[in-house]
Each structure stands twice: as C-alpha cells, then as structure tokens.
C-alpha cells in the first residue's frame, strides 16, 4: 500500500474511532450510510474528483459537502471531508477505505447494543445458503451476463425478508463488490470481523471422516492455546484429503493431510 494511502487511512481511523465509540448502537446506521455513500462514489464515479492530487484538500472537502450534506448524517459527511483532504495513491483506495469503515461501524454498533452475535449468525447463514445452492451461488458470482445491481436485487429477494437491516446491508456489499474476492469470500471476511469483536477466532477444519467429540475437544484446546482466543470450529468432510486434518484460519493454512504429504513428495521427486 502506498505511503500516502497508509497515512491517510491511519489518520482517518484515529479521527473516526472516538466518533464511532460515542455513537454506540447508532454506529449501525452510520455504517449503512457509509457503505451507501461508497457505492454512490464508485458508481458515478466521484472517486477521481475526490482524490485528485491536482486539487487542494479544502476544494475536495467542499465537493464532499456539496454532494452529501443534508442527505447523510453530518458525522458521515465529515468523515468523507477528512478523507478527501488526505492523499491517496489510487482513487479506488478511497472507496476501499470507506468499505472497511462502513463494515466496522455496523459491527461496532451491533457490538454496542449486544446484537453483533446475531449479525454474525445471519451473515454466516447467508454464506452457508449460497455455498449449498449451486444455482444461487453462480447467479451471485461476478459475471458478464449480469450487472452488479441485478445480483444485488437477487440477494434482496432471497435474503431481504429474513435478515435484519444491518446484516442485509453487509450482504449487499458482499455481493456487489467482487474486487475483494467475490460474495462468499466477502461474507467470510465479515463473519471473521464479527467474531474478532467478540474475541473469537473461526477455524475451518476439513477431515476425511467426522472427528469424535474427544478429537474436537483436543483440537479446540490446542488452537485456543496457540491463538490466545476462544476458537470456534467450522467443520466439514472431504474424503479427498485421504487422512489427517486441514485447518484454515483467515489466510493461514495448516495442512496435515495424506493428500498434502503425497503432493509434497511428488514435488520433491519432480525437483
């Protein structure tokens, strides 16, 4: 990440953190507004003018005011004014930073009113439904055959009647923004962030056959000691692993399967 972008992100977070803390549960509404604003900036597009290094910071901040004052909470507008005064290596970095802040605001607000576990559950269940329904999964994945808005409308039809407004706002973001890795990867990121707010870590565990209760207990104890947080196991079965266990924690993978060992041996022989 460019030094200018990193510095602006850090300054923005430092200024926004006390605002979000004071907002309490209303952070959920602020977060939804931030995500909506980020989408409008990206769709029109406004990110270029708001990050143009050839314009003064105050000129860009004034543009932010003209665009959104009176339409959004003034705290959200002030957030954008501050970001517009900063330096960004690429216009898209502004939108990406707004995405992160919006997600964090929704989850922090939910944490403040005690509903973050509910939102985590809702987003996780949406991810599970998408994963299990191939037709739905393919329809929501980025494709030249559909627009982002068509995919978002489909998500609204499928999940809108069943999810809370904050959770649905997060699901819309996850479907709309494929640059972050597609809907399922985006949903996973949201679930991980919600879990982290509750001082929990989610570990995806794949085995060839179901683990016994004793095996799960030992694995939980080992991971809890290693990670220093409460751990939640998300288990699944894949006969292709042949034996052993494959554990994924965020981007870190611990692979102790027979299939992995065979692949390593083949690589060594080929070398």
Beta-strand share of residues: 5-15%
The number of helical elements comes to 13
Specify the overall morphology.
Answer: globular
Instruction: Write down the secondary-structure element order.
Output: HHHHHHHHHHHEHEEEH
Low-confidence stretches: none
Radius of gyration: 21 Å
Secondary-structure content class = alpha+beta
Query: Level of helix content?
Result: 55-70%
What's the count of strands?
4
End-to-end separation in angstroms reads 35 Å
Question: What integer is the average pLDDT?
Answer: 87
Order of neighbouring strands in the sheet with most strands:
2-1-3-4
Largest sheet: 4 strands, mixed
Account of the 3D structure:
The structure is a single chain. By secondary structure, the chain is α+β, with helices and mostly antiparallel strands. The protein contains 13 helices and four strands. The protein has helices at residues 3-23, 27-43, 47-51, 57-68, 74-85, 91-112, 116-132, 134-140, 148-159, 165-176, 183-197, 213-227, 258-270, and strands spanning 200-207, 230-237, 244-249, 252-257. Strand 3 (244-249) and strand 4 (252-257) form a beta hairpin.
